[in-house]
Amino acid sequence: METDGGDGQKLAQNRSRLLSGFLFFSMNVHPMRKKFPRDRS
């Protein structure tokens, strides 16, 4: 079993990667959603 410190670091890395990915995704999707307000409900 890994140490708590290593696990915490991995978790933080994962979270930051997820956050940046989400930011990138929302930035790409936002303009499209403005173009098609109610494309799919």
Ordered list of secondary-structure elements with their pairings:
Elements: H1 4-35
Short description:
Helices cover 78% and strands 0% of the residues.
**Major beta sheet summary:** none
Radius of gyration: 17 Å
- Structural class by helix and strand composition: mainly alpha
Element-by-element helix/strand order:
H
Mean pLDDT: 76
Give the termini separation: 45 Å
Strand content: under 5%
Number of H/I helices: 1
Number of strands: 0
Low-confidence stretches: none
Q: What's the overall geometry?
A: rod-shaped
Fraction in helix: over 70%
What this model shows, in words?
The protein is mainly alpha-helical and 41 residues long. The protein contains 1 helix and no strands. The protein has one helix spanning 4-35. The model has no long low-confidence stretch (mean pLDDT 76).
Features:
0% strand, 1 helix, 41 residues, mainly alpha, rod-shaped
